[in-house]
């Protein structure tokens, strides 16, 4: 299952890659504190402005604005 950032620029498949949607290239791979690649279907995105959370989205594509 793929999840997309609130702005639609990035995709996070459950395999742990972060993909730039425009170029369709892998730009990063999620890893744990030991450097091992991680896989997950649980995703939470929180956007901050001046250190305060202003938007949040999850793996269901639900975005909320505070």
Number of DSSP helices? 0
Q: What is the strand content? A: over 45%
- State the separation between the terminal residues, measured CA to CA: 27 Å
Structural class: mainly beta
What is the overall shape? globular
Please bin the fraction of helical residues: under 10%
The major β-sheet equals: 4 strands, antiparallel
Q: Give the assembly state of these chains.
A: single chain
Mean pLDDT: 86
Please mark out the parts with pLDDT under 50 across 5 or more consecutive residues, or reply none: none
Task: Please list the strands of the largest sheet in the order they lie side by side.
Answer: 1-2-3-4
- What is the N-to-C order of secondary-structure elements (H for helix, E for strand)? EEEEEEE
Mind telling me the C-alpha Rg? 13 Å
- The total strand number stands at 7
Describe this protein's structure.
This protein is an all-beta fold. Helices cover 0% and strands 48% of the residues. It is built from no helices and seven strands. The protein has strands spanning 2-4, 10-13, 17-20, 25-29, 44-49, 52-58, 63-65. It has a four-stranded antiparallel β-sheet, with no helix packed on it. Strands 5-6-7 form a three-stranded antiparallel β-sheet, with no helix packed on it. Strand 3 (17-20) and strand 4 form a beta hairpin. It is globular. The N and C termini lie far apart (27 Å). The mean pLDDT is 86.
